[in-house]
Amino acid sequence: MPELSVLLLFIAMFVVSIRGFRDPVFFRKYLFEVSDVKYKKEYYRLITCGFLHVDWMHLLFNAITLYFFYSIPFGVLGEVRFFVLYFVGLGLSGYFSYLIHRNDSGYAAVGASGAVSAVLFSAIVLRPKLELIIFPIPIPIPGYIFAVAYLLYTTYGMRRSWGNVGHAAHLGGAAAGVLLTLLMEPRAWHLHPWMVGIILTLLVVLIVWELKRRRIL
């Protein structure tokens, strides 16, 4: 059973998402859309979009992923710092997505996946040898290897605009999760220097490369 504060987060995610399923006006008011952030300065959308989802599958995927991985950063960082990780990760993932899509005024997105990516990568930084099983591969994969594969896939997906997926938010959330965790818990670096170093170096290279490619840097 999740801690009360985390349980309330799940409840809020489900209540707001269900309201969004049923009320298009409500959904439109709180989703992330580049034009609303860029021209109307509605920065609250960087956070509120994380409580909305497209459909039940989208909602359940994010909720289940969060449920399986939140306990590691929550246990190590504590309640307050966990929620700093979650909400700052959500905001930064949205901002990174805004930077990437800033010239596409029609770009819109919803979902907690940026925040969930922050939590997932925080868990991996804290426990790099954590084993993950990715369907349909039946073999456990060490967390740091999964992180490398995930970052490469996400960056490639972002460049190719694969599917209706917020790849930029995933990459931004992952970066936020790694950096925030190292700032709040520097011991993670000292305990696993080379594994964390691989993840951090790859993140920096991919993000700088992508920002330069899009002439943001």
Question: What this model shows, in words?
Answer:
This protein has helices at 4-22, 24-30, 34-38, 45-48, 56-69, 71-77, 79-100, 113-126, 143-160, 167-184, 187-191, 193-213; strands at residues 32-33, 108-109, 131-132, 141-142. The protein has one domain: Rhomboid-like (Rhomboid-like fold, Up-down Bundle), CATH 1.20.1540.10. The longest helix is centred in the middle third of the chain and has 22 residues, at 79-100. It is built from twelve helices and four strands; from the N terminus they run ααβαααααβαββαααα. Strands 1-2 form a two-stranded antiparallel sheet. A two-stranded antiparallel sheet has the order 3-4. This is Rhomboid family intramembrane serine protease. InterPro entries: Peptidase_S54_rhomboid_dom, Rhomboid-like_sf, Rhomboid_protease_S54. Keywords: Hydrolase, Membrane, Protease, Transmembrane, Transmembrane helix.
Please give a handful of descriptors for the protein shown.
4 strands, 12 helices, Rhomboid-like_sf, Peptidase_S54_rhomboid_dom, two-stranded antiparallel ribbon, globular, hydrolase, Rhomboid-like fold, mainly alpha, 217 residues
Brief digest:
Residues 41-184 form the Peptidase S54 rhomboid domain. The protein is mainly α.
